[in-house]
Amino acid sequence: MNTSAAPTTTSEADLAARLPSGFRWGVATSAYQIEGAVDVDGRTPSIWDTFCRVPGAVHAGDHGDVACEHYTRMPADVALIKDLGMDTYRFSVSWTRVQPHGRGGVNPAGIAFYDRLVDELLAQGIDPWVTLYHWDLPQELEDAGGWPVRDTAYRFADYSMLVFDALSDRVDTWTTLNEPWCSAMLGYAYGAHAPGKRDYPAAVSAVHHLLLGHGLATERMREAAPRKLDIGITLNAATAYPASDAAPDREAARRADGMGARLYLDPLVHGRYPADVIADLASEGISLPVEDGDLATISTPIDVLGINYYFSQKFTGYAEDGSTVDAAGLPVSRTVPLDRPRTAMDWEIVPEGFTDLLVRISKDYPGLPMVITENGSAFDDEPDASGFVADEGRTAYFTSHLSAVADAIDQGADIRGYLAWSLLDNFEWAYGYEKRFGIVRVDYDTQKRTPKQSALYLRDLAQQHRTR
């Protein structure tokens, strides 16, 4: 490990001093992106194993069969987290490793890996944060209809309890779902993620059943909890800015905010879907498959809201030709540039959108503690001869976004931690291995791990915060 100190500046010390006592410092990963070992110890295919085999679905035909070999290199990776001074590690559990067919009993060999991981983390003084679902639905459940069908919510709750029963004696923080918007919309509406479907009404049904699965699992975990535990969900959210004060632009931003944020937050917190979004969907002949009691289950109180943030967007309700309705007669809604620098993902860097989002959530959904469960950036990293990456762009991204978090805290937002995405360069979904988000470089040929400048920056910032 490169142990040279990252540059320390007065501004970094000031930033550390602005964050509250007890603030979590951590990193995050997900199972399919790092574990590899896809056919080991009883694991069966998930929708991502299948999707990666679809020609053209993933960059260069990449897949997660090997990924970062975390399944066999786990103890060394935990030691690396310790060396980087992180006190929290958010990881996801592979559903098909724990429950190979999406139903039935626990797979002892599969759950044993996470049992060892939790023990290893605790031995190093690192708090394990479990995410139960990070997009790797068992293929057999997808074959039975996937998230658009109600039964999948019940299957998820059953699976969640297998993990909970095995680990809740040692794990204090639980996340049910990671980014249900991505699971529903990228997976079932836009075809960009597994399972690669393009069926908008089915995607809307998936939204409801994902949230229902969250509620069912939360109810059951709460009832079975051996002590006070923190249970929550992680949403990817952003600020939707109107391109102008013109009514079509404000309407476009409202619609984007409704489908991207309020469609999830309102039922989770207020026990209702937003009326304007219901009306928008009805205008397209689409309805949410809500049954009696569903919203009470979905709004089962949570202890923490995870927020994943990468960018914000500006929306206009005008087409390029000036019209305000599309060929189907629906209102136009499209993004226009904010004219900001961009990451390698072509995402604009908008830290003030982060502040605006966090302050808005704190005001519209009060009393809900937040933790930043993902924030980070992909850049075209260039290693030196030793493998070290002086990733100044990523380091600057962390500085600006942690400053945005501090700004939100100054404005009253209750934010209790920051988990960088990601610990390792890894399989970046449809982008394969082309995009690198890691604060640690992975040489995919040798699996050598080399902390980047950004990792050393976060290490030093966390240390300054603890000793201020």
TrEMBL record:
Its EC number is 3.2.1.21. GO terms for molecular function: beta-glucosidase activity. The keyword ATP-binding does not apply. Belongs to the glycosyl hydrolase 1 family. Gene3D superfamilies: Glycosidases. It is an enzyme of class 3 (hydrolase). This is Beta-glucosidase. Keywords: Carbohydrate metabolism, Cellulose degradation, Glycosidase, Hydrolase, Polysaccharide degradation. GO terms for cellular component: cytosol. GO terms for biological process: cellulose catabolic process.
